[in-house]
Amino acid sequence: MTIKDIAKISGYGISTVSRALNDHPDVSQETKDKIKQIAKENRFVPNSNAKQLKQQVSNCIVILVKGSFNLFFASIIEQMQTHISRLGYETVIHYLNEDENEVRMAEQICKEIKPLGITFLGGNPETFRKRFSNIAIPCILSTTSAQSLSFENLSSVSVDDVKCAKQAVDYLFAYGHTHIGIVGGNEDISCTSGLRFAGCRQSFQEHGQELTDQYFEQAHFNISAGYEAAKKLLQKNPQLTAIFAMSDMLAFGTIRAISDLGLSVPNDISVIGFDGIELANYYCPKLTTIRQPCENIAVSSAKMLVGAIHGTEQAQHLLLDAEIIEGDSVRSL
Amino acid sequence: MTIKDIAKISGYGISTVSRALNDHPDVSQETKDKIKQIAKENRFVPNSNAKQLKQQVSNCIVILVKGSFNLFFASIIEQMQTHISRLGYETVIHYLNEDENEVRMAEQICKEIKPLGITFLGGNPETFRKRFSNIAIPCILSTTSAQSLSFENLSSVSVDDVKCAKQAVDYLFAYGHTHIGIVGGNEDISCTSGLRFAGCRQSFQEHGQELTDQYFEQAHFNISAGYEAAKKLLQKNPQLTAIFAMSDMLAFGTIRAISDLGLSVPNDISVIGFDGIELANYYCPKLTTIRQPCENIAVSSAKMLVGAIHGTEQAQHLLLDAEIIEGDSVRSL
DNA sequence: CTGAAAGCGCTTACAG
DNA sequence: CTGAAAGCGCTTACAG
Question: Where is coiled-coil annotated (chains A, B) (predicted)?
Answer without folding.
Answer: none
